[in-house]
Design goal:
Hypothetical Protein Yqey, Chain: A, domain1; globular
């Protein structure tokens, strides 16, 4: 993933695509920040890691997309459509480096299967079910939606 971002950045620089280049540089800066943060634990002790794990980068990119979706909503409510369009453009660039996300129907089916396989009967089982889903679908599933579906299914 890192290499793809570097290649895309070089291409945008050669093409003179300033908007794309700016977004790619934002991504690179966020990854560098995550790399630095992963070197130390909460107590300030060295973890022995130089770079963030690919799963951490994946989570970072997904978080960036979620933040931009929230910003779009805020900008549209305030009547700042140009800013909302800029955020949407950034989302399209970030999503180039993410795996294809599961549809809502696919998430529902996966949640139902996980509830069955984990023998989930109440909301107390939600953590175990989410852990199972994260192991299997990390990077492909929106876990906020999955959590909502788990609550819905177990409440019925």
């Amino acid at each position: 993933m890192r290499e793809q971002i570097v290649v895309a950045t070089k291409a945008a620089l050669k093409e003179g695509d300033k908007r794309r280049l700016l977004t790619l540089r934002l991504i690179s800066a966020a990854i560098r920040d995550r790399d630095i943060a992963s070197r130390f634990n909460n107590k300030g002790e060295s973890t022995g890691k130089e770079l963030a794990e690919p799963a951490e980068i994946l989570q970072l990119l997904q978080k960036m997309v979620r933040q931009r979706h929230e910003a779009i909503t805020t900008y549209r409510e305030a009547g700042h459509n140009a800013l909302a369009e800029q955020e949407a453009f950034e989302i399209s660039i970030i999503q180039e480096f993410l795996p294809v996300e599961m549809s809502e129907d696919e998430i529902r089916r996966a949640v139902a299967d996980a509830i069955k396989s984990e023998s989930g009967t109440s909301l107390k089982d939600m953590g175990r079910i989410l852990t199972s889903l994260k192991k299997k679908y990390s990077g492909k599933m929106d876990f906020l939606k999955a959590g909502a579906f788990i609550r819905q299914i177990l409440s019925e």
